[in-house]
Amino acid sequence: MPTRARPIKSSPLLPRSTDVVIIGGGIVGVSTALFLLKKGVSVTLCEKGEIAGEQSSRNWGWCRTQSRDPRELPLAMESLRLWGQMNELVGAETGFRRCGILSLSKTDDQLEKARALLEHAKLYQTDSRLVSPTEIRQLVPGSPRDWAGGVYSPSDGRAEPEIAAPAMAEGAQRLGGIVLTHCAVRGLETSGGTVSGVVTEKGRISCQAVVLAGGAWSSLMCDSLGLRLPQLKVLGNVMRTAPLQGGPEISTSGLGFGLRKRLDGGYTVAFGQSNEAQIVPDSFKYFFDFLPRFLTERDAIRLRLGHRFVAEWKQSRPWRMDEVSPFEKVRILDPKPLKRDLDAAQQSHCSLPGL
Ligand SMILES: Cc1cc2nc3c(=O)[nH]c(=O)nc-3n(C[C@H](O)[C@H](O)[C@H](O)COP(=O)(O)OP(=O)(O)OC[C@H]3O[C@@H](n4cnc5c(N)ncnc54)[C@H](O)[C@@H]3O)c2cc1C
After folding, report:
1. Which of 186, 205, 216, 312 could bridge 325 with an S-S bond, Cβ 3.0-4.6 Å?
2. 69-88: per-residue pLDDT in tens?
3. Substitution candidate for ligand 1 out of 54, 229, 301 with most atoms within 8 A of CB
4. Model pTM?
């Protein structure tokens, strides 16, 4: 769907040198910029399109400690703490709210798995806890199913994907960072085996380090540098409602179902497991990397051979630093939603108030 991220004003000038160049202005790139600047490191961020033009303005925006792998938990807790200070840090609204997150389990088996993860969460004293079907109906009045139970995390929350990254990019500019939009990085330069600069479509920048935060493009950039980064694209579909009254504040997900309120009062809703992976040249290159995951999730992913095979095959050819790179040819990756899946979702019943 077209990006609804608020465009920011690009910094006017390409610097000759900077400590760190960040490639990509999604949430990873802008938060890296912000925290490096706070440490006194000079930063230039290059974004080929708009800040958060791609995945970072389209995700669910959940900021959660819930259902984390035990190895992720300390990082997730620190991230949630930082989200709590983000508006103050950037001097603008990022949409962060501690609305609570509720994950529903349909079967006792699923509930058991959730309970096992909770045991780890207890070690870190998060406030996630099991809730009964009765509590679920209190938390989400009109909940459509009889769930076996769920996990509720009151202090987890959500940020607003369409405004968070642009607000953080402007915060980085206020801290002295340079944020360039419509400025693709074509490649890297090295000297004595280390990074010495980047070549952008607008000129060269000397630097001591590069952070690659290119989202779905990172594998292509790595490939051009002789580095292997297994990565494939999956298209998921969600719907959005207009603003409405009376729906739940809490963010909720269950089997094939997800619901979150947005700052404008509307809801983002997912029904069913509507994911499509097109077969592309990289599907063969990374076949064995993704096979185990595909086998465990094959019910949730449809494979299809489509137009992207030829487009990505052409894209993966090497390019020169003085010619237009694949990154400039697609300023904003904007795949069309699958209408058939959205129509099917609209036929589904949802008995939450107002939906
Ligand atoms: C369906 C779905 C739901 C999700 N829900 C959540 C959630 O609830 N909570 C959560 O925390 N995460 C969620 N995620 C994950 C989250 O969306 C991603 O982890 C995050 O957006 C990735 O951010 P990023 O900055 O790495 O990449 P992106 O947002 O993709 O940004 C990368 C940017 O790099 C730019 N770029 C690429 N190459 C170049 C180049 N050569 N030169 C210049 N610019 C370049 C691109 O234009 C792009 O803007 C979800 C993901 C999906 C798919």
Report:
1. 186
2. 889 999 999 999 999 999 99
3. 54
4. 0.93
pLDDT above 80 (res 352): no
**C-alpha 152 to ligand 1 mean position (Å):** 26
pLDDT computed for residue 307 by the predictor? 87
DSSP string, 303-318: EE--THHHHHHHHTS-
Domain count, the chain: 1
CA–centroid distance, 236 to ligand 1, in Å, is 14
Segments forming the whole domain that contains residue 35: 20-94+160-231+317-337
What percent of the chain shows pLDDT beyond 70? 95
Instruction: Give me the helix-helix angle, 27-38 and 161-174, nearest 10°.
Output: 30
Task: Output the domain CATH number for residue 172.
Answer: 3.50.50.60
Residue to substitute in 59, 94, 205, 207 for testing ligand 1 pocket (most ligand atoms within 8 angstroms of CB): 59
Whether 112 is in a domain gets the answer no
171 contact partners, CB below 8 Å, separation of at least 6:
34, 89, 90, 91, 92
* Gap from CA of 327 to ligand 1 centroid (Å): 15
The residues lining ligand 1, judged by C-beta closer than 6 Å to any ligand atom, are 23-29, 46-49, 53-56, 59-62, 184-185, 213-217, 221, 236, 327
Give the pLDDT confidence of 213-249 residue by residue, as tens digits.
999 999 999 999 999 999 999 998 888 899 998 888 9
For position 314, what pLDDT does the model report?
86
Mutate-to-test residue for ligand 1 from 56, 94, 268, highest number of ligand atoms within 8 A of CB: 56
Q: How confident is the model at residue 354 (pLDDT cuts 50, 70, 90)?
A: very low
In a domain, 28, yes or no: yes
Residue 52 maps to a domain:
yes
Collect all residues with Cβ–Cβ distance below 8 Å to 269 and sequence separation of at least 6.
238, 239, 240, 241, 258, 259, 345, 350, 355
- Does a structural domain hold residue 333? yes
Q: Report, as an integer, the average pLDDT of 307-322.
A: 89
